Structure formats: structure tokens, C-alpha cells
Amino acid sequence: MAKLWGGRFSKNTNELVDAFNASIEFDKRLYHEDIRGSIAHATMLAKCGIIPKEDAEKIVAGLKDILKDIEAGNFNFDIALEDIHMNIEARLTERIGAAGARLHTARSRNDQVALDMHMYMKREVVEIAELLVQFEEALLTVAKKHDKTLMPGYTHLQRAQPITFAHHLLAYFNMLQRDFRRLLGVWDGADIMPLGAGAIAGTTFPIDRFFVAEQLNFGSVYANSMDAVSDRDYIIEFLSFASTLMMHMSRLSEEFCLWSSTEFGFIELDDAFATGSSMMPQKKNPDISELVRGKTGRVYGHLMAMLTTAKGLPLTYNKDLQEDKEGFFDAIDTLKFSLAVYSDMIKTMTVNVDRMREAVSKDFSNATDLADYLVRKGLPFRMAHEVVGKCVAYAIGEGKFLPEISLDEYKKFSDLFEADLLDALKPENCVAARTSYGGPAFTENDKQFVRGDEIIAAQKAKVEELKQKL
Fold it and tell me: Looking at 21-35, 239-253, 294-308, 313-327, which range is the least confident one?
């Protein structure tokens, strides 16, 4: 098939070059954006008197028919035509004749693909935002059910202080809230219209770029044609957002793997979200969590690949920029799958409340509270810290935990100890006393639940707002 750019060439392209150069196998997913952008472009060309109105009407009708064919699975993508743009344009010209050949007036594939990617990004931002909010809702829902469920909090993976399971999940909720904020920044970076920049230096035709931006619901237009065709910051911003979100999910995945082990026994994943062993009949493996943890590195790789691709490119367009798509598309697919499966997995898991309570009752995570007890009796904290450290060492030597030591034994370390020290050591009291803002106290959890509901409502409203701008 003759190339749409082949007028200057005297030889056919080598078949290997065709295969290496082509992007149709992955950029065909941009068909909707490519057709929508072409409709807006053709409408603008007619409005500005650059092509006849009758030709524009034929182009628009022809593009709509092609859209129906693609969505019905009746469109044959040809690798010889390289990409989604030339596949659609060639089919259009084949169907409507010379009018179709006028469509590419005053544009280049450079600004055309940039337009497609900007539009595709905006659509995906909305879909990912919806999934992210669902994930946040799942965390908040489970947290509310376990507002009184006690568990050990960890530092260095060693038991540190008593907390609630709700407080632990709310930490991830807050991470995701920041991810949502970053995602809105990705939208802002994508909401700039590049079409009309041409290959590098705009066009000699009297086009109206702002009309096209209005037709396609863009908030602004690139002010520099060279920047418009070479900018991939918005893709890097997305991959950075995706890497951060996947990192947060990977941290939660690691905890799910630990918590579902026999050694911890804090949770059990629903059978629908676990797998077994082909050899060991007893196994129930947290494969979803392991896969999310593993795929995080994959998304990181896409970010590094894009940064590396862009770092040495002179202005403006270079074929290297075709490498912006496969990693970007894969990161989107990976992220959306991970978010969707995690929302359902969290809501269906079983939380072993008794096991968590037993764990927090059989450790020394209440030692800080015992030191605080002495501080309230008037002892400086550093001295209280030393006294309680000696109490802990004594208890370990006796094979006991702090609540199991008698008052007479405590008196050996400080006369400030009284009978009420046992109340200070109860895990529920340790948690309830931590009422500083953002702490794990039950009253603070309640405040975080209210705040969480408000955040979810605001995020849903923002998603609906963005949908209106697609």
C-alpha cells in the first residue's frame, strides 16, 4: 500500500522497517480520540474557510461511520499504514474520495498524536479517579467496622505501641487522599490543547486553535508550537503519580502478606481472592497482594524508561517519542486492575479480632504508657524511660509481661508506682489516652471517619466535574 508520506521516496519501505516503525499494534486504542479530534479539526477548517463546508460534512460523516466499524470489530488495521492516524485517514479517503484527503490540511501527525494522547489521558484520569475513590471507600468502610479492634502498632517490624486496626487502615486512606490530589495535577498537565502546532512551527493557514480547544473541552492551548509537539511532561507526571500510588499499594500488600501468615494470623483473605499450591494441599496464598507488590516495580520501570527517553531529545519531535505509549498504556492497565481487585479484596477479608487482641496483650507495647504514668506522677521522662526499661528487662527475665508483675515488684524500681498502674497498662486504655490530634484514640478515629466521609464526598463531586470536561 502506498504511504501517505511517500511522494519523496523512490523505493518501498523494507518490511522489517515497516514492522519496527509501526505503532498500530498499541496505538489503535487511541481510535476514539483520533476520530473525535479529526472531527473537531475538520469542523474548524470549514469554519475558517480553509476547506469547503461540503467536504467537512463528508469527512465528519465518514469518520463517524469508521468509528462504528471499529467499535463493531469491522475495521482491519494495516501495519503498512504505521499508526492509528494513517489507518483512519486512508480508510476515510478510500470511502469519500478527495474530501478525505483534505482532512490533514494544517496539521501534522506530530500535533495529532499529541492531541490524541492528551485526550486519552484525561479520559483515563477520570476512570482511575473513580477506582481510587472506590478503594478509599473500601478502606474507610472496613476501618469503621473495626474502630475498637486493638492490634499492635509496629516500628522496625517490632511491636511498638497499641493502636486500632481502624487507625492502621486510615493511614493508608490518607496516603490515597494525597494520591488523588496528585492525580488532579495529572489532569491539569493533560488539559492543554496541542493541535495546530503542526510539525514544529504551526501553519500558514488561518486556523482557530481556540475553537478546536472549545470543541474538545480543553482548558487552555499550548502557547508555543515547539513545546506543544515535544512535551511529554504530562505522561511523566502520570507515571510518577502511578508509581507513588503503586508504592502505597505495595506497602499495604506487604502487610497483607504478613498478616495472613500463620505467624501473624491477623487476617484471612476470602477464598475468591487467594490461590492454592499445585503440590501442597494446605496452602492458601496471597497471590493478589504479591502480584501488586511485584507489578509496582514494573510501573517504576515505565517511569524510568520515559524519563530516560526524554532526557536527551533535542526539540522538537523525534521518533523516540513513540516510546511514550506502550509503558504508559501498560501502567494504566496495571493500575486500574490493581485498584479494582483491591477494593473488593479488602471488603471481603476476615479480620481476626481475637488474634489481634491477644497479640497486643502479650507484648511490651504498653511500656511507653507506663513511662507516661510515671511522668504524670512527677518523674522527668528520661528518668521514667530508664525505670521502665529496667522493669521490662526484669519482666523478660521472669518470663512475664508488664501486667503480670506485682505492685511490690514494681516498687523495687520506683516508689511512684501505685495500684492504678494496672489501668495504665490495659491496651484499650493505652489507645484511649492517645487523644492528640491524629492519634489512635477512639474519639480521634471518630473524627477521622467524619473527615473521611467529607473527603470522599468532595472527591466524588470532583470526578463528576471532570466528567463534564471530557
Answer: 21-35
10 assigned to active site: no
Active-site hit among 23, 38, 220, 277? 277
| Per-residue pLDDT tens digits for 257-272 | 999 999 999 999 999 9
Catalytic residue among 10, 156, 406, 436: 156
- Residue 194: in which H helix or E strand, if any? none
- Please give the sequence-ordered ranges of beta strands (E in DSSP) within 295-378, or none if there are none: 350-351
In the residue annotation, 253 being an active-site residue is answered as: no
Question: SS3 for 293?
Answer: helix
SS3 state of residue 86: helix
> Which residue type occupies 268?
E
Q: Which of 102, 116, 126, 108 is nearest to 46 (CA)?
A: 102
Question: C-alpha angle with apex 196: 193 to 200, nearest 5 degrees?
Answer: 105
Quick: pLDDT tens for 183-225.
Answer: 999 999 999 999 999 999 999 999 999 999 999 999 999 999 9
How far is residue 469's CA from residue 219's CA, in Å, rounded to a whole number? 9
Name the CA dihedral angle for 38, 43, 48, 50, rounded to a multiple of 10 degrees.
60
As a whole number of angstroms, the distance between CA 231 and CA 71 comes to 30
